[in-house]
Structure formats: structure tokens, C-alpha cells
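Hi there, hope your week has been kind to you so far. Please have a think about how the structure follows from the sequence. I've dropped the whole record in just underneath, so have a look:

_____
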Amino acid sequence: MKGKRTTMADIAQKSGYSKAAVSFAFNEPHKISKEAYDKIMSVANELDYVPDPMARNLSIGKHMVIGFLLPQKLEFSMNNPYTVGVIRGIGEICEEHGYTLNLIPPLHSSIPEAVKKAMVDGIITMGLTVDLGIQDVLRQRHMPVVTIDGAASEGVASVNIDDEKAAYDIMTAALKKGHRDFAIISLSKDAYAKTGNNRLTTSRKRFIGYERALRNYGLKIEDMLLLTSEPTFEEGLKCAEEIFSNTNRTVTCIVCMADIIALGVMKKAMEKKIVIPDDCSIIGFDGIADSQNMFLSLTTIEQPAETKGKVAAQALFNIINAPDSAGSIQHMVPYRFIENMTLSQRKNQ
């Protein structure tokens, strides 16, 4: 094992240049001559010097890291292809800017605590309202933030699709097929809130879209079978078991707020010998690749996960590079309704 670590002071002493010149060579080479740069680098190689990234980041006043704040535990997030697609898009833009991407799950189940301890230059959140106890932390740290699929907040840039219209479109398609008895698997309990003070989260927007479509056909959403679920395959299995085991009512169409949940529902239907879509139609939301690789391609709303990630990351870098450009910028990306094999005309019952 070698002795003490080589420092910039060692390079300065051997090269004959000042410590400031050595620092410029590694951090801002345009500030010194080519002759000085070449000499300093030659000595650095001779002494086997490797810059300390933490010291470098301190010198430039940046961590060179972007944080992606996960609303769920890492295991849940990484099992959702939609989330993985968003991360892929963010990572691509980070790479272009020479930044590292840090995934930040809630620390000890606390989102504010995770934000407080994150060593990052900015944060992208997904599926969160920014006022969930983290607004003060962000302000104290002067931390720029961009939300994906979150409720709009004053002074915070966001990236979304028109979730309400997308949900309205897909529910209307099922209604046109004659379906009137639905099970709706929502992503969070706030979707059921009826008070005017409730923030318009993504789940709530979709719920409103379903509700509006049902109302056009003289139906009430509260008369449907309503369930909540984490966006995981396993939760889809559990919800499907509850739906298919309910002997008190007949459901002809199951509406899921995430494709990964719908895939779990389809798997459970197979186990129970329920024929999709003849016995029961299933529709999803997200357009993940796996939903089209099943034995039956899923009727769904396709939203571009990678595009959302890229748009959010670029918006965050714009704020980092020009702090005065913050503001409540709403970035809307397009979606596409895809009618596939899991939605069919309701049979007479």
C-alpha cells in the first residue's frame, strides 16, 4: 500500500507553479497558459495524482448530482417499467450535462428527511405534491425542483400529460362498448376526496376524468367497485382476487390507473379461468412495453415515460443555470389512447 495521498500542494511544489494554478488546471484550464497546463498535468501523472471529486465540487460550489425523489420504496419503484422509463430519460439528460443521477427513496419513510440530507444540486420528484412537508426544506436549501405527475404548486415547474382528459377518453371508450359495471383500481386514497380543498394530484385528475365520463351515461362513480393499490404487479394480483371473489356484484370491466396493476389483474384472471375480454374487459394506463408483450395486448393510455424524464431534467438544468427562470412552468406532453385486445363489447347478461 502506498504512503500518503498526493495533493495539489505536492504538484505545485514539484511543478514550480502556484496551488491556484494547479487548481485552475483541473477545474478551469482556460485561465492558465497551455504551457502551464501541460507541465502541471505531466507532474500530476508522474505523481499518480487523482483529483478528489468532493474537493472539486466544493471549489466550484456544486455537487454535480441531480436527485430523483422516489415516492415509494426502491423495490417498488424499480419494478414499475413506467418509473424505470422516466429514470432512463432523466439519466440521458444528466449524462449530456456531465451530471450524476442519484435515486432518493424516502429516508426512514420521511420525504422531508430525504430531501434534507440529499447532496444534490436539484431534485426531480414523481407523483408527489411538493407541499408534503418539503417546501420549507427546499426553500432553506435554495433547492430547485421539478415535478413529474405531481400536483401543481406555485413557483414549481411540472411535467404532466392531460390526465383528466386521458382518463375521460379511456372510460368513454369502455362505456361505448356497453360496459356499465366497473371496478376502478386507483393509485391513492386522495382520489376519493370530494372536498374542494383537495389538491389535484395525478390520481385525483384521473378519477375526475372517469367520473365525468360515467356521468355522461347517467352513472355515479360511487356506485362502482372502488379499490386502491400501489403500482405493482403483486398489488394487481391482490386487487383482482378481491374483485373476482366478490359474489355480490358483477364487474364487466376493470379500469386500472397503471399498466403494471392491469398486468397483475390479467394474470389472476388466467389463474381463475376468466376469459379476457369475453368475461371481463381490462384497461390500463401508461403504455409500458410489457403491456403489449403479453398474450393479449392491453388497452391503455400511452404516455411517454422517457420523454417526461427528459423534459423534467432539461427544465431542472435550465433553472440551475438561470435561477431567475424558476416559476410555475407547466410542461404538457402528448398521450395516445391505444385500443387493443383487452377491451370488447359487453355481452348481454
In short: The first helix runs from residue 8 to 15. The chain has 13 helices and twelve strands. The radius of gyration is 26 Å. Residues 190-198 have pLDDT under 50 and may be disordered.
